[in-house]
Amino acid sequence: MLHPDEIVRLEAERDILLVKLWVEALKLQLDLDEKTYDPNQPRVPKGNPDGGQWTDGHDDSKPIDGRMLAQAVTPPRIEALCLDQLRRDMATCGRLSRGRQAACIAQANQRYGACLAQRDIPPLPFGRGYE
Asked: Are 35 and 24 spatial neighbours (Cβ–Cβ below 8 Å)?
């Protein structure tokens, strides 16, 4: 039978590995999104309430996903800084109890999206001083 401290250590290692796996999956998704980006994608015509937004190319002029738009206009240097912030946030989330990880990861994603869109970045109230 394992000692309780060993169980806690193994659970923490498992949780960290899960966060690392999640980050790698996110990076793969970002790579996939980048490969499907088309700089010649049409925009909604001027005068339309959604005028200037990129469309999916169909006649309904439906605006594309905001995350895809943010990635399309985010300079590579900013994108790298945002990804670095996400990695740090995920490391913080990986040190939390399982019950708090989901909320932390959701907030980390919001911070990442805000960073890519170059908006104010909300706090991550899960680090030191928030336990």
From this structure: no
Backbone angles phi, psi at 43, to 5 degrees: -115, 155
- pLDDT greater than 70 at residue 128: no
pLDDT of residue 129: 57
Cβ-proximal residues to 113 (8 Å cutoff; 6+ apart), any chain: 66, 67, 70
| Angstrom distance (rounded) from CA 81 to CA 78 | 5
31 and 51: one domain?
Answer: no
CA atoms within 13 A on the CB side of 55: 16
Q: How far is Cα 75 from Cα 72, in angstroms, rounded to an integer?
A: 8
- For residue 85, how far is the Cα from the chain centroid? 10
Is residue 128 domain-shared with residue 94, that is, in the same domain? yes
> Could you tell me the CA-to-CA distances from 95 to 3, 15, 31, 126 in Å, in that order?
20, 8, 27, 10
Which of 48, 65, 82 is the C-terminal boundary of a domain?
65
